[in-house]
Amino acid sequence: MADNRLQNESFVRQKTLGKAVHLDGIGVHGGQKAVVTLHPAEANHGIVFRRVDIAGPNNLIPARWDQVVNTNLCTVIGSDAGLTISTVEHLMAALAGCEIDNVLVDIDGPEAPIMDGSSAPFVDLIVSAGSRSQDVPRRALQIQQAIEIDDGHKHLSIQPHKYLSVDFQLEFENSGLASGHLAVNLVNGTFNKSIGPARTFGFRSDIEALQAAGYGLGGSLDNALVVDGETILNEGGLRFKDEFVRHKILDCVGDFYLAGGPVLGQIKAIRAGHALNNALLRKIFATPGACRWVNMLQSEQQASPAFAAA
Ligand SMILES: [Zn+2]
Asked: Of 122, 149, 244, 307, which has the fewest beta carbons less than 10 angstroms from its beta carbon?
């Protein structure tokens, strides 16, 4: 399709992996072992998960906002046939950060492994595979008008912007340590350096109830930060002094990559999480004129500065 935006600038091309790569780990909620294999895929394939422990052909789940079936504590995607894969957001964030468009993700169980609780192991895996440019322009979802959503004291909005940026306000009554504010422009590979290594977290006081409800069964100090008031229980401490809000931005980047491609817009979040991220995507696609698909320009992923004024 013709795109009459700036013609003196080159379009970005779609990318896939240079070769297949795999890793294994355990699911943070179910606690079961899982092997993940990332395969290169042709242009316009998108990111598609495949449950290889289930016989085909109905074992494919496209990584898309309209396949999200649950957002309680993590993002779960599901197929029309009722198969699900939980906790896809940290892998999705790594694929977004590495600007990979086309990949087939094989997984031999119902939950992606948590690894160290961040996206860094997935980023390392993708980097180890190398990437291959494809002869088709990269498609980005350009936000055309402001869309917002409120749920009690949680708020999430997006407005038109040249590239993806996220401004996140995280507030906890029971922990000043875990609270924080950060604004980041997701350009120039900033995700991989400054957001990807931030780990997921939980409060010590919530663990018992969480596990009684069947969540966090694979959780440990090896794959999550555990906070007790103003104290971190993990021996090595924090990777960033504001690691908590960085992880919330990581989740946001992963959830929004379920748009089906990179999003060009400025996100503002207050206490938002997986549920609101998916609700905003649904509202964007349900609102006439709120967005359009465009061929992505170089300046939409290479721009400065990385950190907006916080
Ligand atoms: Zn997360």
From this structure: 307
Residue range 188-215: mean pLDDT, rounded:
93
Q: Which of 29, 39, 90, 274 is catalytic?
A: 274
- Assigned CATH for 13-137: 3.30.230.20
CA of 135 to the centre of ligand 1 (A): 33
User: Which are the contacts of 97, defined by CB distance < 8 A and separation ≥ 6?
Assistant: 119, 123, 186, 189, 191, 192, 195, 196, 253
pLDDT band at 2 (very low <50, low <70, confident <90, very high): very low
Residue 274 designated active-site:
yes
Q: How far is the CA of 238 from the centre of ligand 1 (A)?
A: 16
CATH number of 140-300: 3.30.1700.10
CA distance 247 to 186: 14
